[in-house]
Amino acid sequence: MLRDLDLAIEAGERVLLVGPSGSGKSTLLRALAGLLETADAGERTGSVTIDGAVAGERPGAVGLVLQEPGAGVVASTVERDIAFGPENVGMPRAAMPELVTSALAQVGLDLPLSTPTDALSGGQTQRLALAGALALEPTVLLLDEPTAMLAAADAAVVRASVDAAVREQGLTLVVVEHVLGPWIDLVDRLIVLDASGVIVADGPVRETLAARHTQLVGMGVWVPGAGAPDPLPVDPALVGAPHLGPPHPRQSSEENTRSAVRPRRMFSSLDCLEATPLTVTRRTATVDGIVTERVAAQLEEPLRLAPGELAALVGRSGSGKSTILHALAGFLVPAKGTVRVGDDEDPARLAPGELARRLAWIPQWASSTIVTGRVLDEVLLTSRQLGDDTPGLEDRARGLLETLGLGRLADADPRHLSGGEMRRLAIVSAILHGPDIVLADEPTVGQDRHTWAAIVGLLAAYRAQGGAIVTATHDHAVIDRAHQVHHLDGQPREAPGPHGLPWLSGRNPLALLAGAALAVPAGVASPGWRASIVLLVLQFVLAVAGLTSRRAGLFRPLRALAIRLLPGVLAALSVAWSTWLLGGRSLDLAATGFTRVLLIVLPSAVLLPFIDTDRLGDELAQRLRLPDRFVVAVAAALHRMQSFGDIWTEIARARKVRGIGISWRRTQSVVQHVIALTIGLLVRSLRSAAELAVAMDARGFATAHRRSWLRPVAWRVRDSVVVVASTLPLLLTLLFRR
To answer: How many helices and strands, by DSSP H and E, does the chain display?
Structure first.
C-alpha cells in the first residue's frame, strides 16, 4: 500500500494529501493515527510518532474522520455520539454539554440532540463524524474526504469550521481530498502519492501546483483550473444493450435543458421510467421507543425518462435524494405518487429476474451490493442469474474492469478494495447485463481525474446503447450533462407531541431488564396452561398500559409488538410440537409448553425495545461499577445489533436487484435464501465490528485509562413501578401453585 515513506509534519502545519484512487491515502491517515493494527492485517516496518510519543498512545491527541463516516457511529443519539470522545479522555461532565452543542454548530448540523444516529443521511453522518473529532479537542486532525458526500453549501460550512478550529486551537491538519480547489487557501503544504504509494511531490501548496501542474494532471489529480477531463471513449459493445432499444430523445437540444422539469402526459411507450410527484415517509424509532413518522423526501415534479436520457436529483445533504432513488427502485412504497417502469409496471411488484432486467442500483455506500467473494464474479453475477451465456461475456466483464482501472483486481476480494475502487466495481456490476435503467447514488464520489473520466465515459456508452440513468449527485460536471434536473428540498423532522410518549419511554434500562428477567421464573413455575392464560392476560394488560400513548394510540404499538413476538410464537409452537410428540401426544402438555414459552418471551418483546444502549452503559459502569472498557464495548455492540434488521433488508434488496430470486413454494430455495442472508449478515457484521473498533480507537477508546460519563444515572419512582408490575405474574404463579 505504501513504500519507502519518510515524512515529517511540523506542529500546526496544514497538509493536503492527494493522489490517485487506491494510492494509500486512507492507509497513511490510519498510520498517523496509530490505528493500522486495530483491525487490518499486513506487514509494517518503521514507526510513527507524534510529539515524540508513539502514535495512538495518548488518548484524544488525534482526531480521525474515516472515509465512510457511517462506520464510525458509536452511539444511538447525536449527543452521545459526539460526547464519546470527550468521555474517553476523562473530560469533566459539566464541560461536555456546551462542547457537544458547539461541535454541532461548527459543522452546521442543526438537529435535536436526541436525534437517532441511524436516522441521518449520508451527508449528515459525515458532518456528525467531523463534530465527534472536533469535540476531542485534538492536537492533530486527520480528515479522509470530509466533504465528499456534501452539497456545495454544506461543504463550505464544513471547510469553514475546520479552518476556524485549526486556527483557534493551533491544530495540525492532514486532509485527504480529490478536489483540491476549495482547500488551497486553507492549507500550507501539498503531499502527492503516486499509484504505488510513493511520495512524488511535497512542498508549499501553490508553488508545488505551479511547478508540477502537468505531472499532477497526468497522474489524475484534480488540479485547480484544469477543468473536468473529457469522458473516456468506451466501446458501447462492452455494455449490454437494454431491451428497450436505442435512445430516441423527445426534445431538441434547445428544449432539452436542465432548468425546470415540466409536467407531461404520463406513461408513454417511449419511456422506460415514469414517476408522478412522490412523497416518501419514514418511520423512525427513537431510543426510548417512540415511533415518529416524517416526510423523508419529496419529488415535486413528474419524472419521465426515455432511453438514452440522464436525470439528476440535486439538493442539500439530507434532502432525500437517496430516498427517492430507493422509491424508484421499488424498495420503498411512496405515501403519495406512483412509479412505473417498462410496460407500466410497479418495480416493487417485479420478480427479482425481471427487476434486474429493468433496473440496476448503485448505492451511496458501494459495499451495500457486494454479494460474492471475487471481483470478477461480482461483475458477472447478474448476467449469470439472468441466464446470459453469450459468448465473450467474461471478456466483456474483464474489458469493463480494465476500463475503470480494476483489471489487476479481478481475482481480489471486493470487500478489500478502497472506497473509490469499490464504487467503480458497483458501476461495472450494474451495467454489464444491460438493464434499462441505472439508479446511481453519487457515482463519481472519491474518484481522481482518470477514474472520473472512465466512469462518465462508461455511463455515456451505456446511454448510447439506450440505457437511462437517474443519479443523485453534487457533481456539477455530471449535472451539466443531464437532460433534466430535479431539485429536492429537505423536510423538517416531525417531533413527538408533549403527550405522545408511551409510559415505558425513558425508563431505567436496569428496570426494563429486571422486568424481562422476572418473566423467566414466572413462565417456568406456571402450573399449567389454564393458569398460564390468566398470567398472559395480566401481562397483556400491563403491556397495553405501558405501550399506549395519545399520539400513537393502541393499534400501531400492538402491531409492532406482534411483529416482535413472531419469533417467540414460532419457538412456542416448536416446544408445543415436541412436547406433544414426546409426551404421549397429550394436548394438555402441549398447551402448557406453548403458554409457558409465551409467558417468558412476551415481557421481553414489550420491554427490551425501550432500552437505550447508551443509558445501559451508564448504569452498568456508574451503578454496578463494571469495567469501563467492557461496558462501552457492550453498549456499542448492542447499538450495532439494533441495525441487524436494516442490514438484513439491505442485503435482501441487493440480492433482488442483482436478480437472485427465491421461490417460496420450494423449501430448498427458502433455506438457501435464508442461509445466504445469514452469511451476508455475518460477513457485514464482522466487517462492521472491525470498522467500529477503528472508529472507537480513533476517538481515544484504545488508550482511555479513566472515562467520564456525559449523563449521571438516576432511578425514579416509575422505574420501581416497572419492577413491581413485572413481579405480579410471578406472585400469581406462586399463588396458583399453593
So the answer is: 24, 18
